[in-house]
Design brief:
11 strands, two-stranded antiparallel ribbon, 11 helices, alpha/beta
């Protein structure tokens, strides 16, 4: 796979990475986990050059880091760029599936969390330590300062943010360099294109789109609400409700048309559009299926024409909000 760098000063990574959340959390939670297949998918991703492997302590909680840690053995850890996150904590009494989350950006929590993450990952450091969400009760400078302590201690090599404003990026950067920003970006979620992505591009900060396939919708897998697995959190999202989903199928149809014209798959078109948004844009689609992983990797070789991009850019906004 062709490569880029994690921002202007970061390590080399494949232009497409791997999001591991769905292997143990949020998607199709009623099904039996298949850790052996998930471990094989993580290793296959690294073999394909999808070297940025993304997890978080809250996924599970904790089980996702444990799974990734088991996968990145036998020489795979040295070949991967390992990323995890801190700042979200699970509320097991929320009564929702997956359990609800709260925010904790207190410095003492950060100090404890990095050590716990490293134990679960079986690693002496992570390549990228990210603030999952800013805690409104804690100045970002305090949270970021504690994360910078992990750099000084050799427990992390670079720091990243997730779902932040330009002002929050600037405030964090004044304390310690911001290597990356992770936010949702796809053909049906374009909010970062207005301010955050241009700022990252100008400052040489990597941008890591999560859910670049519209939580699977843009691939054409779901034609009705009933296609969603039971105990899957997408059943609670506005865009997947019956009327909105029916309207949003027009977006999938447009993606399918471009896919047929470019001899690629809808997933590859959706990822190629994301890749076209900037030099340091590294999408992290999630999958726990080898076939879908290969499909995603192939997007790195898809070249969309100016006409293709213009057609995709002109698609209408989706029906329904993100959450």
């Amino acid at each position: 796979m062709r490569t880029t760098t994690l921002g202007r000063n970061g390590p080399e990574v494949g232009v497409i990475g791997l999001g591991c959340m769905g292997m143990t959390y949020a998607y199709d939670m009623g099904s039996t986990r298949d850790d052996a297949t998930s471990i094989a998918v993580i290793r296959q991703a690294v073999d394909l050059g999808m070297t940025l492997v993304d997890t978080a302590d809250v996924y599970g909680p904790f089980t996702n880091e444990e799974l990734v840690g088991r996968a990145l053995t036998d020489g795979y850890r040295e070949r991967a760029v390992l990323a995890t996150k801190v700042g979200l904590v699970v509320d097991p009494d929320s009564g929702t599936t997956p359990p609800g989350t709260g925010r904790n950006g207190r410095p003492e929590h950060v100090r404890e969390a990095i050590d716990a993450s490293l134990r679960r990952l079986g690693a002496d450091h992570v390549d990228l330590y990210q603030l999952h969400r800013v805690d409104p009760e804690v100045p970002i400078e305090e949270t970021w300062g504690a994360m910078a302590e992990a750099i000084a201690a050799g427990k992390a090599l670079h720091l990243g943010l997730s779902e932040v404003t330009v002002e929050e990026i600037r405030r964090a950067h004044a304390v310690h360099p911001v290597a990356s920003v992770q936010s949702e970006l796809s053909l049906w979620t374009r909010d970062p294109l207005a301010e955050v992505l241009p700022h990252c591009e100008a400052e040489g900060i990597a941008f890591l789109p999560f859910s670049p396939l519209g939580r699977g919708f843009l691939t054409g897998r779901f034609s009705s609400f009933d296609d969603l697995p039971q105990d899957d959190f997408r059943r609670r999202l506005p865009r997947f409700q019956t009327e909105a989903l029916r309207a949003n199928l027009a977006i999938v149809d447009r993606v399918q048309q471009v896919a047929e014209r470019t001899d690629s798959t809808p997933a590859q078109v959706a990822l190629a559009w994301v890749l076209a948004q900037g030099r340091y844009v590294v999408p992290i689609p999630g999958t726990k299926t080898p076939r879908f992983l290969n499909d995603n990797a192939g997007a790195a070789d898809v070249r969309l024409s100016e006409e293709d991009l213009a057609e995709l850019d002109a698609m209408p906004a989706p029906a329904g909000g993100r959450f």
